[in-house]
Amino acid sequence: MSAQGRLLAECQLLAKQSTPSVFALADEDDILHWTALIVGPPHSPYGLGMFHFDMRFPKDYPNSPPRVLITTTSSGTVRFNPNLYNNGKVCLSILGTWKSESSGEQWSSVQNVLSVLLSIQSLMHDKPYHNEPSFEDDDGSGDVERYNEKIAHETLRVAVVDTMEDTLQARAPPNGATPAFADLRKQLLIVHMCNYLDVLNGWIASANSAVHDGRQFKMMPFECAANCMDGTFGWKAVRERLLAVKAQLDAEHDGWRAAGVEQAALLRSDRAIGLAPSVRALAEQFDELAADGVDNVSISSSKQNALVWELTLLGPENTLWEGGYFQVEFVFPPSWPELSPRVRFATRMFHPNISRDGAPYLSTLLQWHNGSARQRTVKAVLDEVRALLTKEPDPEPITHVNREAAGLCFSADEAGKREFRRRARRCAQDSNE
């Protein structure tokens, strides 16, 4: 199989992830050039950061490995890991950029894009200090903690806020935030916003004076001036910028609503000129869903807004949500289905996979860029929304957008599980008032 054929097959493999945390897309004009995004593992100093990579494949791939560079470096000024240099170098044995005595860690043709990205993600664990050779043991100096602290700060500053500002301002990306993943990054920010703010507020309130605003980052023994993570803590400034990003996303959302009002007026006047193709496509899908019917779901399309759907989900029998009536809103972009819709529970929920703001973790929305026009349907999104109430909560930490609910739901303590069930049932009861 040619490199092109192999890479086309790997596109499909990436699209099949049920709970994706790594993403990759080929350049439309060059199948041998890919852009990748890795979400930092939760509960690590890289937690939920959006790290971008440039991947270039040789013509004899998969016989030879790709060349991979990290581009989330704040214009070459931030080294995020002993194995991730600020000049972009990714030190990994399977890529041939790090020597290893173990033959099992060398490149082989069974490796693929997904395995490479997961290997890079595995470097982003809870104690990356120990990735540096000869620093595998904790010497009690406190450097392990100091290193984590500055990584956590720079993850939020560079891999979240800088990256989202680049996205919203469509500026030349010093952090690799290419347009290919713009919609994905917005969905990630929306669903994880509460987690980002909780982490920032925790650092701001910390009694640890070493991380207070204005304190200098500590240089690690394996860092040097040309390849390091230097700077000062500024948690409050990062929070202010994050809230400004949120306000811009809210304004974009409001713009979609305003466009929907205009489109609804055109529909009422029977004027075809100016009517967006997305509105016609949505009307067709609404008619299909209405004709087929959807169990335990009532769907209404607002006559006042052609880009807003309102859903009522009836809590399924024999679940914690039984008897509840849950309001969900779908707001579609004028360019739908090119871009994904925004989905929000208007009813208060206590669920590991639904944020306090009502944003559900939906892999369908995160994988929107991988779907064909036929796969990008309202029904696909609706089915996953319904599954939030019919199936057990997803145990994968990357999906835990309400960490309090997740902590209780998956607690080893039975008392914690009971408290989760009590609060979930209370949501169902309150939804009737």
From TrEMBL:
Domain of life per record: Eukaryota
Keyword Nuclease: no
GO MF terms held by the record: transferase activity
Source organism of the structure: Diacronema lutheri (Unicellular marine alga)
Entry-linked InterPro entries: UBC, UBQ-conjugating_enzyme/RWD
Localization per Swiss-Prot or TrEMBL: Cytoplasm; Nucleus
EC number(s) from the headed UniProt entry: 2.3.2.23
SMART domains linked: UBCc
Descriptive protein name: Ubiquitin-conjugating enzyme E2 Z
UniProt entry tagged with the keyword Nucleotide-binding: yes
Keywords: Apoptosis, ATP-binding, Cytoplasm, Nucleotide-binding, Nucleus, Transferase, Ubl conjugation pathway
PROSITE patterns the UniProt entry points to: UBC_2
Domain UBC core positions: 2-160, 277-433
